[in-house]
Each structure stands twice: as C-alpha cells, then as structure tokens.
Design goal:
- The protein is α+β, with helices and mostly antiparallel strands.
- It has a nine-stranded mixed beta sheet with strand order 1-14-10-11-12-8-9-2-5. Strands 7-6-13 form a three-stranded antiparallel beta sheet, with no helix packed on it. Strands 3-4 form a two-stranded antiparallel sheet.
- β10 and β11 form a beta hairpin.
- α5 packs antiparallel against α6.
Length: 220
Amino acid sequence: MSIIPIKTINIKGKAERLVADHQSTRTAYNKEPISTPEIYLTLTGFEGDTVVHTKYHGGNDKAICCYNADRFTYWNETLNLDLQSGAFGENLTLTGDNALEENVFIGDRYELGEAVVEVSEPRGPCYIIGIRHNLKQFPVLCQETGFTGFYLRTIKPGKVNVTDKLVKIYSHPAKISVMDINRIRYHDNKNKAWLEKLVALQELTAEWREKFQVLLNKLK
C-alpha cells in the first residue's frame, strides 16, 4: 500500500495584494496551515479556501494543489531561500518519495480521510510563484526541473483530519507520471508517440490534453 504523509493542510480565507520588484497581483496564494483539527473537502476544494484566478485555479480538476516539502531543500540551497509550508501556494504540503513528481501517476486514486481524490495534472507553475518569492524566473526554474507539484480532483467529498494521510486505493494502468508529462511539455514536445499517449489519457485534464493535441497537430 502506497501512503503519502501530509505535513500540513493549507488554506487562505481572503485575497491580498502581493508585491515584488517586477510585478504585483491580488491573490490568495499565501496559504497557511489550518488551526482546526479537521476540514471539509468539497468537489472544488477545501471549505474556507479562496481562489482568485478561477480561470487557472480551482474547480473540480484542480480542487487540491499539492507540493512535496522534500523539494524545499533543493530550492533553499539553489536560490538561497527559506521555504516553509504553503511556499508554492499548495493546499497539501506533502513529504516522502511517494509524493515526488516521478512517483505520482495521473489517474491514481487516494483516500484522504473520508474523501477520495484522483491525480489530474501537473501544476503549471505561474507568475505568482515569482511574485511571492521576488524571483521572476522561479516559474521557469520549476518547469526546467520538473519540480512543479501536482493537482488532485475530488471524486468523493468528505471530512479530512490534519492527521490523515493520502492512502492509494487505485493505480492507473498507464503509469504516466507527473514528471513524464513535465518532460514532454517542457523538454520533448515533438515526441509524437508520447504526445499521442497523453492526448489519449482521459484522466489527464482536458486543458492539458488540448495543449498536447495542438503540439501533435503541428507534427502532422
């Protein structure tokens, strides 16, 4: 049985303005660990959490944003940062090898307390990461390394306790990892065989499948 420990569950109740040297924006990116023993997961996210840029975040396919705290060491050493839970705007700060992008597979399902969730897509690093840490190039560095984190869609809503873990209950037969997808999108986007695989992967969000279809069409 594959289990992913959860370091913290993070939400942000109200939006605020984040200001960097190069840009500013209104966002609820600065999510903080919850202080209650439990929280309810709806079809579109945790109760009490705010999503400002709804075109790119939130909704069922992106109900939960996840990032592995084990990656913080790399970023801290590379960029001289001091990252803590919520540093990537994630709702779940995870730990352990089972939460690394190369070990998380699209379509895999997990129990999360009373809820059931499914891996839906890699997190597409956006400009707000750069604003939050005053490093304009940060999103591109996430893309280049593949250390992006990932999203979960809610299959079954339910209560989640702060002591709960992600417990795998189904492994998708395709075994296509978040890192596989990042590799194709950011480093190997003319790989026809892989593009065809990703377009056909129904559990991958329509948004990402459409991106890969566009790339595939260019090769025809």
